[in-house]
């Protein structure tokens, strides 16, 4: 840093000035130039006007004097100056001109403001006037620089004399100077008004740009744009009217937004109704599950209110499709593990009972006990296998769910002749849908004091597979239409995560298979309809 720069720390390069300062400076300079140009132009115009007025005046007075009968008569006398001098002086005073000179065709004066000049030769150009023309010029004569006109005096077509009328340039300048206060006053007023307007504009620009310079704004834009496109989460900004203003690449991908999304209303972008509601309502959200474009998204929404004034909302979204799918698979594995653990524990108890009966010598009772257990297990298998036709994986799934229901004290009723065609959907999707709906029903009735009943039915009608799961639980609370859309759950707060994820998985799978899902109640009834044979396995 130089000594001069250290001595003036407040002086900054114009490139570091704020946008407001640059705007003010630029407008002030332009205004100064415009006002100055206006004042100079007004001055030039005033001077031109004064010269033009002086010219018109001397021409008119000269022609009037030349046409006067008294002047013509005076020129025919033996001593013209005696008669013409009083006439000329009277005209001069009456017209506020500086001189009215009547002379002979050769230039000998018959009149003059200074009588001592009478009889002397006129100083100036008179040849054109003596030839019948007219002379208008600026010339320095005996009275100084003047604007003058010389015209001939004729009588019967013969030139008998000349008339010259003039106004000194000093008088012309005096006329101009009389107009200068008005000109400069108008210029000063214009400068003040322009200055105030410029100041107001600069203050407004300063508020809008927060006192930042153009370079700082450019750097801020570059940084924000880089961050916007670098984050792995979807980021979307909406205004208070629900129009999408900004969306990064991930948000465009997750929501399937068109390229011309900027400035369009959320309900005009082909988004699901829950997502449209999220983008347009005034409520905030935190880690809410939603389905969009076949993906499970965790959505959060917060208001943007700099200085306490709401400007819009920022919506973040994370793709949790694979995580939710893995969570669902983990839930299924955990539930089967629990069922197997319960069955192992019960089998161990029964085996100990059989061994104890044999040790006590009750072999017949031990044999009957073991046979009854096998009959019950086989009967359960026969009922499930006999009731469900079509997809073997669903049969196996329901067989495991039946065993699990038995362990939990729940009655699982499978409607006879239930049919789940093998081409209804990919096996993994069918297992996800049926498994999560049945688990959801088990959870719904698990706290009942009386009978706990869950029903499953599957039928094929008009090319659609309809699967229905019903339970006699307390039903859904709140808006049933939100049950699948936002990871709905009626579990306790510490357990709601698993069930909410399961319902989200069902909604995701059904949407991907181009099917529908409905929920009514109480009693709670989930109905899933899938097109048969439309989705490749």
UniProtKB/TrEMBL annotation:
Residue span, Histidine kinase domain: 342-534
GO CC annotation terms, alphabetical: plasma membrane
UniProtKB keywords: ATP-binding, Cell membrane, Kinase, Membrane, Nucleotide-binding, Phosphoprotein, Transferase, Transmembrane, Transmembrane helix, Two-component regulatory system
InterPro entries, A to Z: HATPase_C_sf (IPR036890), HATPase_dom (IPR003594), His_kinase_dom (IPR005467), PAS (IPR000014), PAS-like_dom_sf (IPR035965), sCache_3 (IPR033463), Sensor-like_sf (IPR029151), Sig_transdc_His_kin_SpoOB (IPR016120)
Subcellular location: Cell membrane
SUPFAM superfamilies, A to Z: ATPase domain of HSP90 chaperone/DNA topoisomerase II/histidine kinase (SSF55874), PYP-like sensor domain (PAS domain) (SSF55785), Sensory domain-like (SSF103190), Sporulation response regulatory protein Spo0B (SSF55890)
Membrane topology: Multi-pass membrane protein
Keyword DNA damage included in the entry's annotation: no
PROSITE patterns, alphabetized: HIS_KIN, PAS
GO molecular function: ATP binding; phosphorelay sensor kinase activity
Transmembrane regions: 21-44, 180-202
Keyword Ribonucleoprotein tagged: no
Principal place of residence: membrane
Record-annotated PAS domain positions: 220-260
Protein name: Histidine kinase
Organism: Flexivirga endophytica
